Amino acid sequence: EVQLVESGGGSVQAGGSLRLSCQASGFTFGDSITAWYRQGPGDECELVSTINGNGTITYADSVKGRFTSSRDGAKNTVHLQMKTLKPDDTAVYYCAADIVNIVTVVSATTCRDVKSAYGYWGQGAQVTVLS
């Protein structure tokens, strides 16, 4: 059974830092694209960052320069280092891997729908940034 287990969420004051981790079992991150999404108080699901199989990393404009994604092949874990956090970063963060439906990935707006486009999806980690 494949599992993506997230850790590292919590509450932090604005300007602070947190690091999220997503460890996979039964699946190797380097074999496919890995993504971080977040869902804030509304329904919209925002793509935060991606790491593709060859290690190329992308970021949403809203987090560029503040968030850093990385992959640890030895531990089969991906990390999302978040710095200079803002209240607008408050959300549930999800890691996802292995796109199975690219059309849905592009068109979906809620995390519930985006989830169906990936083979594997983490349980979510709450990040709360206090003003």
Fold blueprint:
Layout: E1 3-7, E2 10-13, E3 18-25, E4 34-39, E5 45-51, E6 57-59, E7 67-72, E8 77-82, E9 91-99, H1 102-107, H2 111-115, E10 118-121, E11 125-130
Parallel strand pairs: 2-11
Antiparallel strand pairs: 1-3, 3-8, 4-5, 4-9, 5-6, 7-8, 9-10, 9-11
Considering the chains and any ligands shown, give keywords for the structure:
single chain, 131 residues, mainly beta, 7-stranded mixed sheet, 4-stranded antiparallel sheet, 2 helices, 11 strands, 8% helix, globular
Structure in words:
The protein is mainly beta. It contains 2 helices and 11 strands, in the order E-E-E-E-E-E-E-E-E-H-H-E-E.
Brief overview:
The chain is mainly β and 131 residues long. It has two helices and eleven strands.
